[in-house]
Amino acid sequence: MGSFQVMIDKIKKGKIPKIAVAAADDLEVLRAIKAATEMNIATFHLIGNEDNIKKIAEEINLSLNNIEVSNEFDPIIASRKAVESVSNGNSQILMKGLVPTAIILKAVLDKEIGLRTGRILSHVALFEVDGYDRPILVTDAAMNIAPDLEQKVQIIQNAVDIAHSIGIDLPIVAMLAAVEMVNSNMQATVDAALLSKMSERGQIKGAIIEGPLALDNAISIEAARHKGIENQVAGLADILVVPNIEVGNVLYKSLVYFAKARVGAVITGAKAPIVLTSRADSHEAKLNSIILAALSACGNNI
Ligand SMILES: CCCC(=O)SCCNC(=O)CCNC(=O)[C@H](O)C(C)(C)COP(=O)(O)OP(=O)(O)OC[C@H]1O[C@@H](n2cnc3c(N)ncnc32)[C@H](O)[C@@H]1OP(=O)(O)O
């Protein structure tokens, strides 16, 4: 059974969360909401162009009877209203609809109404890739642009927390770079080596961190052996930590478009989980993200 299916069973044992959706007037968003409603894993507060929401809902046979709808044309204001719905306790999860990522994240980081906790907020995507024997997490493909060493520590911790919540007790974290040796001209390799040593010394707990590793050595035992990388974790990564947003975003989209991987993604580290997918992602990706966020919100670990 796939990891997303296992999560659904777990979510149903807890209190069903309400999700505030910013700029919900989008076909793929509403298709995901319809599926989540039918699975009974979430209720919704939709903020967006009400006429468009009603029109799309009718087209896809989504009943709005038990769904709260707030009319708001402007995506910036819709984002702020959705964030407020979470910060005032009306909703337990925030979801991005048809709005650019930076706009909703600015509302999330707003000092007055936002969802800051003092921790780093970061994006964690969970992929099921045919041919890879385990679910794989990728971080950070969407929020932190060029994290420094201290930010990478917190990004790793956020991803490790998600790994624990889906039942990976001691995840293997691969710090991705272009090469396996430390090269002082490539900051990613320097940070990776430091993080690996910090893990060895117990400064980062709950995971084994290894790096620098190129992608092939992180996910293929054969490739690692071929390059003479003799350790117990090379080729067996559960979490891929990318050096910057460009690498993460390209990896995310390569897995979806070339490898046809199934994906769900959340922003974690905030007061509530945030469903954040690309506007072009399918309704399946949005549904999987709702599932991942609902599991985080209900605190029912697998
Ligand atoms: C993969 C599928 C989905 C996608 O394709 S997404 C597409 C790509 N993603 C994006 O375009 C978003 C990339 N990130 C950004 O644009 C920006 O970093 C972001 C999140 C909007 C924040 O930008 P700004 O509002 O300009 O923020 P800033 O750097 O001036 O900081 C303002 C205050 O917020 C804080 N902050 C920024 N990032 C944070 C984080 N990750 N966790 C916690 N706090 C954070 C920052 O410390 C600052 O705080 P303070 O005001 O000094 O107290």
UniProtKB/TrEMBL annotation:
Highest taxon above the source species: Bacteria
Keywords from the named record: Acyltransferase, Transferase
Record-annotated Phosphate acetyl/butaryl transferase domain positions: 8-71, 80-294
Molecular function GO terms recorded: phosphate butyryltransferase activity
BP terms from Gene Ontology: butyrate metabolic process
InterPro entries: P_Ac_Bu_trans, Phos_Acetyltrans/Butyryltrans, Phosphate_butyryltransferase, PTA_PTB
Protein name: Phosphate butyryltransferase
A Pfam family assignment: PTA_PTB
Species assigned in the record: Vulcanibacillus modesticaldus
Similarity section: Belongs to the phosphate acetyltransferase and butyryltransferase family.
